[in-house]
Design goal:
Layout: H1 2-8, H2 14-45, H3 53-62, H4 82-103, H5 112-132, H6 138-149, H7 153-165, H8 173-190, H9 199-207
């Protein structure tokens, strides 16, 4: 992708360059989405890992191209143990959530509904990952990041706390939580909450 970007910067208008780069980036994300999704599906069908039906519903509703039958993955690449499969699929689910978040960068600025859908799809992947490995804080941290992006501040605070206090805590979860609380406090200082006000200011007031 970087090589393609460098090639495109050699000539043409800025608008054309940006369009081509976004197109290449979007194509890269969809290909990664397709491969990871198909790999998880193969493992699930082979009985290597158990996932909730909620995950398949999320995949089918978020992107019709997420599971193309023409993808050249013929044999399930099964690990030697169910525990290994669970850990690998956990990471793949998080990567799929990250890809959905990155796809927002390719959407037009006039598509807030599409932004929200992509973020909600990311949340679905992270939630399924959290159900698969509830003692690991990684998925909770990613949930908190996404909730912050869609202004779901109470959920973000909760997920950062879960990521921090998990049996296997996410490394920067504590710092991320304190940074969000600090941001909320700054909101309160610049926009003191009233009895009927809501949003970040209200939760910042609670955080004080």
């Amino acid at each position: 992708l970087r090589s393609y970007e460098n090639d495109q910067l050699q000539g043409g208008s800025n608008g054309d360059k940006r369009s081509k780069i976004i197109s290449a980036y979007s194509s890269f994300l969809y290909q990664a989405n397709s491969y990871y999704t198909r790999l998880i599906m193969d493992w699930k069908q082979a009985g290597a890992v158990v996932l909730s039906e909620h995950w398949e519903e999320a995949v089918n509703s978020s992107s019709p191209t997420a599971y193309p039958p023409s993808l050249p993955v013929k044999d399930p690449l099964l690990p030697h143990s169910t525990e290994t499969a669970r850990q690998v699929v956990y990471r793949l689910l998080i990567h799929l959530g990250d890809i959905e978040r990155y796809m927002v960068q390719c959407l037009p600025a006039t598509s807030p509904a599409s932004w929200k859908q992509a973020h909600l799809s990311a949340i679905s992947h992270y939630q399924c990952a959290a159900l698969l490995c509830p003692d690991n804080g990684y998925a909770y941290n990613q949930l908190a990041v996404t909730c912050t992006l869609i202004q779901a501040v109470p959920c973000a605070l909760l997920y950062y706390l879960l990521a921090w206090r998990a049996t296997e805590p996410f490394t920067t979860a504590q710092a991320n939580l304190f940074a969000l609380i600090s941001s909320l406090r700054q909101d309160v200082a610049s926009n003191p909450p009233t009895q009927h006000s809501g949003g970040r200011g209200f939760y910042g007031y609670c955080a004080l």
